[in-house]
Structure formats: structure tokens, C-alpha cells
Design goal:
Order of helices and strands of chain B: HHHEHEHEHEHEEHHEHEHHHHEHHEEH
Oligomer: heterodimer
Strand content of chain A: under 5%
Radius of gyration of chain B: 21 Å
Structural class of chain B: alpha/beta
Helix content of chain A: 25-40%
Number of helices of chain B: 17
Low-confidence stretches of chain B: none
Largest sheet of chain B: 11 strands, mixed
Mean pLDDT of chain B: 95
Strand order of the largest sheet of chain A: 1-2
Radius of gyration of chain A: 23 Å
Shape of chain B: globular
Mean pLDDT of chain A: 85
Strand content of chain B: 5-15%
Largest interface: A-B, 56 and 77 residues
Distance between the termini of chain B: 24 Å
Order of helices and strands of chain A: HHHEE
Amino acid sequence: MTRINVDESLVRKVSDLANLYLSEEEVCFYQGRLARILDYVDQLDTAQALGKDWRGDILRGETPETPERSDVVTPSLPVEEAMSQAPAHSGTAFQVPRIIE
Amino acid sequence: MAATQTPCSELTAKKIVGLLQAGQASAEEVAKSFLERTRQTHQQLNSHLHFDENAAIAEARAADRLIREKGVSELPLAGVPVLIKDNICVRGSKTTCGSRMLGNYVAPYDATVISRLRAAGAFVLGKTNMDEFAMGSSSENSAFGPVRNPWHLDHVPGGSSGGSGAAVAAGLAPVALGSDTGGSIRQPASFCGITGLKPTYGSVSRFGLVAFGSSLDQIGPMTTTVEDAAMVYDVLAGLDPRDSTSVNHPQSGFAAALSTASLKGRTIGVPDELLDKGVDPEVARCLERAIGEVQAAGATVKKVRLPNIASSVAAYYVIATAEASANLARFDGVRYGYRAEGAGRKTLKELYRTSRSQGFGREVKQRIMLGTFVLSSGYYDAFYAKANKARELITRDFSAVFDSGCDLILTPTSPTPPFKLGEKLSDPVAMYLSDVCTIGVNLAGLPAISVPCGLTTSGLPVGMQLIARKFNEKSLLTGAYAYERATDWHKARPCL
């Protein structure tokens, strides 16, 4: 079994990797939730081993080939429409905070 | 006109096409009937996220124009109104995914399934409520409030396609589209007493579906009859060059194949693992009776084993969350979606983080963090690699059952009947276990269907799941149709 000690620092580390800010209350909440879920997920340890050469592939076997597309330019979304959903943009550029002072 | 004389709850897609073919109704008249019914009911259920009558009428008129142009006989879904789960893009319409993150997002293009429906004469009637980013089994995780079950308003309709399930059961549309990553079409179909088809992975294009778990997601129809599901699947299935997971496996004639549907001489496997432990006695009672009904219709039923199926929920909550953590990284407040107030004045990292923290709901953050954790350095082998091994073993278990001579596998769709709102919110594992009968199908990429097979003593629907080999939707639909013809469960409707 892979017993994981889900402490506050682990929750903070994971939220940092996931680009999420958590309040103190949320850290406490997710600590409990992640501990409960990871404890359940631990049962995967009981899954029997496969041989070394196994290959997980959802599209193998009885599934037909996925053909390649021909290498030709096809119409795509006009730039103005693609930009229309941006929270802030200037011409054809998405606006973000300055990254170089 | 005849369309307005028939109660909406009795208007199937097949009947609507028949009315249009006989010149007894137009798409616009059909739309008006359903819109009137929707106006009276949708707020009670909170089934709709976008209900725009003018837009729906405009859609219906466009369908009528197409019908005049091409001829009704050329359009297999002529005049059929369809509700769309709100994670599927409809050009010019909001596509929120039940999330504050996409609360104001207007899709700039149509999903391939929408183009296909329209080209077949169908039209979009509205968009349905759902668990945020399709993450949930009860439709309580929507940022826009929970959906209610039309059979009992204090019960959940299942999830994540709960708005689609509730609306079809309540007669607000004959057809709705759902998406199914771990049971999100079949479980709400079961909870709402309707039919829900999860097609083979790769058979229906996902272009325009907001991604959750890319190795698992599929779009499929939710209807009141198997015949309608087959008619809609005929239109949805097929290669789409814009979805690289869409496969070239030309299939058609699903609805036509139903005319010779029979269970005679077919072998149906019943796995002990999904009928014994943890199944509610009322569900078990309905399933035992359903097995008897299947046998009476001429099928041979045999006990089979899926020895690794107990690992399916654990494997799923590693694989699906890992994929979700990557897929949802795109929501950063830059190109589309929610941007936190004043975030533009901060650093880029702060913009990402405040936007994501304010835009995502509780369950979504939980799954993103779980997925991030299982992929993180030091834990990948312990969780993600093991989950993929379990997935492979589950896939092999299903193959072994089919190789042993079974045409179909029969299970409950859900181990419990619909539960009460709030009942499972405090324990994530209890909620995740709602999907124990459906998740293995997604892990193995198989097609499966849920059809009504009974009611509990308190009058809540129970569903039966049939599973087939990959790309054997014909076998699946004919089996389900033969069962439907032998029983009356699909005719039961909620009083609303």
C-alpha cells in the first residue's frame, strides 16, 4: 500500500502546481477530501501485475485505424471571432499583465 | 395541427418525423408545443441553462426551410427538437459547462454533432444544466444550482447530464444530447426513467465538446425509446477529420436494424460482481425480474465474472482526474472564460491563479488537485501507472466475457435508485461509487445503453445497463429494443 500522509503542506504544494489559490478553510477542506479519496484509491495496489510488454491503448485491437488528414489548408475560425471571447485583447493579441519591467 | 394535439411527453422523435412526413406539422409547430411545456416546467427542475424561445423558433424555421429545400424523406430527423448539454458548443449560444469559469462564454463555432443534427433536419431547442465540467453524479455541482428529478423533486436526477435526463423525462424534448465520461449519460437516464446510449469510444466526433477526460469522453443521445436513440445515433456516428480520436468505421442502419430485433438465441452475461455486493435491494429486485424478462424473450442468461471491476472506480478517479488536470489547464483567464476582477494589474501568475480560484467550483478544484497529485513527481508510478494497469485488466475481463460467447452483458446501471439532494455531498467516495456499474465501460471504450427496467416501491425509476463489444451498437440497440418491446417500463412517465 502507498499510504500517503495528506498534510497541509502537501495540499499547498498540489494547489501551487495546479495554479490554484486556496483559503485556509479550503486547505483544511481539501486535506480531508484528498485523504479520503487517496485512501480509497490505494486499493489499486491489489491489482495483479501485468507482463512487462503490456501496452495500454484504448484504440487497439478491434478498433479500425484513425486515418491521417490530407495535408491541405482548410478554413478556420476568423481571427476576430477567435479573439471575441478573450477577457482583454488588443488587435490580434491577448492582453496579459506586463511580464518584463 | 396534430403536433399540438399530442401531449409532448408522448411525442417521440419517430412520431414527429412521421407527422412531418404526413404534412401534419411543421418544425415550428413542434417547437412551439415543446416551448410551451418547457415554459411551465423548466424552472421547477432547473433543467435548462439557456432557454431562449426566439432562438429556438429561429432554429425551427431554419429546419423548415431545409425540409422544403431537400424534401422531408431525405431528412431522418426532420423537425425533431433536441436539447444540448451545456458542454457542447452551439455557435452564438452560451456554453457554460455549468461553470462560473465559462459563465459568459459564447461558442464561436458548432460542435460536429450539432452540424450533423441540423443537416438531418433536427434543431436545437436549448441548453441543459449539468455538473460543472461534467464532474459529478448528481447534477448538484452546477454553478447555477442543482437539477431536480421530475419523479421526485427532492431527489437528484443523476449526473452529470442531469438537465438532459430530467428534461427528456419531463417531456420538454424528445431527445437530448449528453456526454459520458464515467456514466454521465447512462446514470441520469436510469435515475430519470429514460434511455441513454454511450457509444463506442471514437464512434462519435467530440469536436466542440469541452474536454474532461479525453481517453473516456463520448457524446450520445438520451431519449424516451430505444428506437429514438437508434435514429439519433444513425445521424451522430461517423468519422470526423476534426477529431483525431474519431475512427473510420462506416456504420449506419441502426434504426432499420430494429425491425428484426430479437433476443431469441442470444447469450447474455450477468457479472456477479455488479449484482451482489452493495446493490440496493430494490435495484436487485428490479434486475432479477429484468433477467427473467430477458430469458422469457428467448435469451440464454449465464453468470460471468469481471474479476477486476472492483478496481474500476479507483482507476477512473486517477485517470479521469489526471486528464482533467491537463485539459482544464487551458482555463487561465487569458484567451476565453473568466478573468478575476483587477487581475490584469497583477503578475501573469497571479492572473492565472486568481481567475482559476474564483472561476472553478469546489468539486472541479478537488479533481484538478487530485489529478495534479497523481501525475506529480514521486507519485506517478504509485497511482497513474497502476491505474492504467487496472484499466488494461478491466478491458481484458470484458473481452474474455465476450470471447466466452456472450453477445451482451447485463448489469444494473446504478447500484442505487435516485438519492435525495444533498445525501451524498459529504462523502466523495460514496458519490463516486454511484458510477461503479458504468465506469468500467468507459475505461474499456465499449458501447452501453441504459433502459428503464422498473420502479421502486416509492415510485422512483431503476435502469438496466446492456454492454456490447466495441462498435457493436447494432447488437446493443437490437437487444435493448427487444427488451423494451417485451416490457412497459419505458412507458412510465413522471407526473409533473
